[in-house]
Write a structure and sequence with these properties.
alpha+beta, three-stranded antiparallel β-sheet, 11 strands, about 25% strand
Length: about 270
């Protein structure tokens, strides 16, 4: 009888995880209402209308009081997203306890990416789309789009500090051209050089790139003041369980969150036609 040589199978302790798009938008939002987020809740945010300044002398040095108005808005915590998965005991034993941690991180990354897409879609939908002087087709015209966004911000009296923009890969690729102003600044050892998803400080904006914008095939960029976008989030529940009909661990969780554009006049975007 012939003896068939056994081919042993080895399970690696190292785990290959999927790539996840780096999350940007949630980190650039106003999150001071974070602790008030509960599923189904409405967070009431009080706003103050500008006080009218009058010419006292021209009014015969007589003044009258104006009634103040409340311009508050409601932040709805109306988004609910869940994860729920099994890790079989055999898989866990063969791939070490790191397997459950890796799946948990994957779920957390997925929830974060979902939030980013929600916020970016809101910014594009509720902000103002600018009419640029010329479409962005190369490094120079892409730079001019950023210039036009800055101009729109200045016209709207948006403070220069805490301005941000996020561009998709198509727009960022134009900024990355070897003869663009951005690359020239990077070559000259500018402190605003390229680093990870950040492009540093460009024309008063803290600048970033992300593929979580709604448009993925044409250049798109959105700019806003960080106070304009409010976001509140909470992991409402996380439950480790034992499976009822198999030898496995089960983990499920519920993420509740909401977002709102508090200052639509401080949000501007441009999308290629």
């Amino acid at each position: 009888m012939a003896i068939t040589k056994a081919i042993p199978e080895i399970w690696s302790a190292k785990i290959l995880t999927a790539f996840q798009e780096q999350t940007i938008f949630a980190g650039l939002a106003n999150r001071e209402y974070e602790g008030e987020a509960k599923g189904g809740n409405t967070v009431h945010i009080t706003g103050i209308a500008p006080i009218v300044i009058k010419d006292y002398k021209a009014a015969g040095r007589i003044t009258t009081a104006d009634a103040v108005t409340d311009t508050g808005v409601d932040l709805l915590i109306d988004q609910e997203k869940s994860f729920d998965f099994y890790v079989d005991d055999i898989d866990a034993a063969q791939s070490k306890p790191k397997l459950m941690n890796a799946y948990t991180k994957s779920a957390a990354d997925g929830l974060a990416a979902d939030t980013d897409k929600f916020l970016s879609t809101m910014l594009i939908a509720d902000g103002t789309a600018i009419t640029a002087g010329a479409p962005a087709t190369d490094g120079a015209t892409a730079w001019n789009i950023i210039r036009d966004l800055k101009k729109a911000m200045m016209k709207a009296s948006v403070p220069a500090d805490q301005r941000v923009f996020v561009a998709n890969a198509e727009f960022a690729a134009l900024l990355d051209e070897n003869d663009s102003k951005l690359m020239k600044a990077n070559e000259s050892a500018s402190t605003a050089g390229l680093r990870n998803a950040s492009y540093g400080k460009l024309l008063t904006f803290d600048s970033y790139s992300s593929e979580n914008l709604p448009e993925t095939t044409k250049p798109q960029i959105v700019a806003w003041h960080r106070s304009a976008l409010v976001y509140a989030s909470q992991i409402e529940k996380t439950e480790p369980l034992r499976a009822q009909n198999k030898f496995a661990d089960r983990l499920r969780g519920l993420h509740v969150y909401g977002g709102k554009i508090l200052r639509p006049n401080a949000v501007f975007s441009w999308t290629a036609a």
